[in-house]
């Protein structure tokens, strides 16, 4: 494997992405669309995307921001308990899934659901199940920060058991427990981010405090990272790449009360290639970043071939557009793989 | 207890304090000396305090910074493997203890010991034991951030067992395991900070990231805080108050790569009173902040009575002196107890 100097990824997909809106969208949109064939776009705008009108207009703004690139934004709705069957039937072909947030659990989730009781969620979930709309979930309780995902497991189990035909995606899993749970129900799947394959709480708070590595869910223990990495490297068929790349301007990261989110879009494919090469698993990378998602969501992405070459890539210190800016993970550092122009 | 409106603390002692040097010392020194009778001063200057000359001159600078207050700085040396018996005998009456840092484990600890093997430490520890000089220890390994203190426990045990006459203080303990270990060896004692009685990792990284609550050892789990609080509230005789109040200028806290340390000196007695009142344990506060330390270290502090009154105290947003500044814990918030002028 030491002789590999180029590597091709077909139809790379980022199945969990935050593109925000306005100038931030114009800044970060192309940093995904120039390398990915498509991405599942999170609906946690202010206000969140809950109507067909908001959905279509957001999709249009994304397409404009990413114009010129072969790129499809797969949009989602922000879960609400009172979505009618008729509404969902009408909007079905314009979305790839619906994202459920417990209220207040992360950035712009204040209007999420206040109860995770299956009976409260039942009307919307039943319609989704019938219509074949996948459910994407931010699975954290409001308990102690290291336990939030584990404490959420019984909720995943109750939804998975109550709606066996509903495709459920545990978003951005961070624990060995979640990896294990994925195999327990046929309809449970998961995304994992790049940064949760790389870091633990040690990297955030073990030395000096590193706000650019602070995210939700927070990075966990070494044994958790190890379980996530194992599953990714073997391209576990129920696991997809979802960067959860989440831009916040520099001044909201390097401050008192810093916002949660790691920005990885412009480095994701290079670092994934580096990582899969290191563990001699390059043959599984295309399944992890594309094929698994195609099967789980049952769709055919736009054709796009990305060629990576073994050549130094110095990660920019900051990306800027008008008044917006964002600091990427590994800012200023040198990666060993580049994307061929 | 609801009728308590004044409370007196006699000879309050802070048995773990960072005063730094230069203008920072001039800024923070008086914020301790105006309320405490004495404090055990940490030796991790740059360079660390390892000679009699450095020790006496630092003590003099502290006294000058705190001039006008009834206050005694109890100084310490920075542990070295090659301290001779003669040197320690000569310096004995000028120090209250010697502080041992594993190399690189916290602020200015780069020249700490690189091996915690008892045999490597033996010459200095043997002299200390014979001369009755207490050993203060920053007890963390360089393992995963949540496990560092627990992983250090076997080292405490081996030193405690090898030197039964040596008074050992586990500094700033943060775990239920350390509370338990304290009772296992007659010669093991501990300090606990104010902030570790109040916060968990949740307060640092559970919501937005809070650099002013980032410290080493990092705040742990709810059950750890609970064990520490129980021991403090009952004034466990082997446990002393040691604030570990550690000033860093604002720009080194609110930045990328923020330094570890919480600055609590100017609010410590007020918040402790609030806390002990809340749990109806005010009768134990004087033991926790003074009597226990007097017995463990076997010394008589300067007479000083501090009267607290139930009156709002708005914590300053920042303390400043010349080019130095520091943001205290609870900056801008209102405490229910004040120190009477």
From TrEMBL, chains A, B:
In which residues is Zn(2+) 2 bound? Answer: 99, 138, 172
This molecule's function is given as: Catalyzes the reversible cyclization of carbamoyl aspartate to dihydroorotate.
| Matching Gene3D superfamilies | Metal-dependent hydrolases
Question: Which protein is depicted?
Answer: Dihydroorotase
Residues involved in substrate binding = 18-20, 44, 138, 248, 260
Question: Gene symbol?
Answer: pyrC
| Record has Zinc as a keyword | yes
What organism does this protein naturally occur in? Arcobacter roscoffensis
Give the record's keywords alphabetically: Hydrolase, Metal-binding, Pyrimidine biosynthesis, Zinc
Q: Does the keyword DNA repair apply?
A: no
Q: Which family does it belong to?
A: Belongs to the metallo-dependent hydrolases superfamily. DHOase family. Class II DHOase subfamily.
For molecular function, the Gene Ontology terms on record are:
dihydroorotase activity
Q: How is the cofactor bound?
A: Binds 2 Zn(2+) ions per subunit.
Relate the assembly described in the record: Homodimer.
Instruction: Please write the reaction equations for the catalytic activity of this protein.
Output: (S)-dihydroorotate + H2O = N-carbamoyl-L-aspartate + H(+)
Tell me which residues bind Zn(2+) 1: 16, 18, 99, 244
Q: Which domain of life is it from?
A: Bacteria
Kindly list the cofactors needed: Zn(2+)
**Stretches assigned to the Amidohydrolase-related domain:** 115-253
A Pfam family cross-referenced in the UniProt record is: Amidohydro_2
Query: Could you tell me which SUPFAM superfamilies the record lists for this protein?
Result: Metallo-dependent hydrolases
EC code: 3.5.2.3
UniProt xrefs under HAMAP family:
PyrC_classII (MF_00219)
Provide the organism lineage as a comma list.
Bacteria, Pseudomonadati, Campylobacterota, Epsilonproteobacteria, Campylobacterales
Please state the pathway this protein functions in, per its UniProt record.
Pyrimidine metabolism; UMP biosynthesis via de novo pathway; (S)-dihydroorotate from bicarbonate: step 3/3
